[in-house]
Design brief:
Elements: H1 4-17, E1 22-23, H2 24-28, H3 39-48, E2 52-54, E3 57-59, H4 61-74
Amino acid sequence: MIEKPELALILEAAIMASSRPLNVDQLAAIFAEEERPDVDAIRCALETKGVKRSGESMASTSLMRSRTDSASSVT
């Protein structure tokens, strides 16, 4: 089983790499089946990183804001 701090970092990286919000099932699918955390573990890890739920999609407003700020500073 993946520890909560490590899980939170993996999920954060997946959210940042995605071009759209991801739902819990999509986040779970990045793990091999034998190492896949359950839905509650994913939600708990996301809460520790300040990720907000919108319906069933997951996106971090602070992560998305920093990504937008970085992109606008490049142009």
